[in-house]
Amino acid sequence: MRSYQSVLILKPDLEESRVDEALAKIGEFIKSNGGAILKTEKWGKKRLAYRVKKNRFGVYLNIYHTLEPSGVVDLEKKYKLFDLIIKFMVVLLADDELERALGREEEVEGEKAAATEDTKDTKDKKDNDE
Amino acid sequence: MAETTKKRSFFSQKICRFCNDDDSKVYIDFFDIKALKPLISERGKIVPSRISGNCAKCQRLLTRAIKKARNIALLPFSVQH
Q1: Cβ of A48 and B73 within 8 Å?
Q2: pLDDT band at A130 (very low <50, low <70, confident <90, very high)
Q3: What φ, ψ does residue A116 adopt, rounded to 5°?
Q4: What digits encode the pLDDT tens for the residues B54-81?
Q5: By three-state DSSP, how is residue B74 classified?
Q6: How high is the ipTM of this complex?
Q7: Least CB-CB distance to A58: which of B27, B73, B77?
Q8: List of domains in chain A
Q9: CATH code assigned to B2-71
């Protein structure tokens, strides 16, 4: 059993309840591959540095979990097939990195950023239309 | 000679901005955009340690962190003009 960090980007126009649903489903994916969730962080809606599947924004989720090394490929496959996820990355964590991550308090920064970016969102929609 | 002093004045720091005073292990998180942003150029390129003044070890960790951040759309691969 090793520890991993999954960073997922969900579609930007999801409501909070849909995000939680997705999170529950992702939890099942991880469990079915012999892992367990250690910590989840919602970074909220963020502006993407480049367009991903024509989206300029995305809802970020960060999950620390354990997993059987043989299950990584299968988990990635499931992420890929899950239609709400537009991009994902699974990173292997060393023990000290995990300890550090679990000790860190969740920052409130994400919420603030989401609030300011919502105003930008309307502007970007115009850009998309062009 | 004048040129070098000019350069130095622009990037005045010649000390590694990640190394701790007490020799404890350095961590550079790929999602800590605040820490990474000053170390990429306007074009999205990684700033060389020659200019930023980072030590070699931290620069290696930094490039890895930046490349991970690029993969997950936190930092740009390139910025179009």
Answers
A1: yes
A2: very low
A3: -70, -30
A4: 888 899 999 999 999 999 999 999 988 7
A5: coil
A6: 0.71
A7: B73
A8: 2-95+104-129 (3.30.70.60)
A9: 4.10.640.10
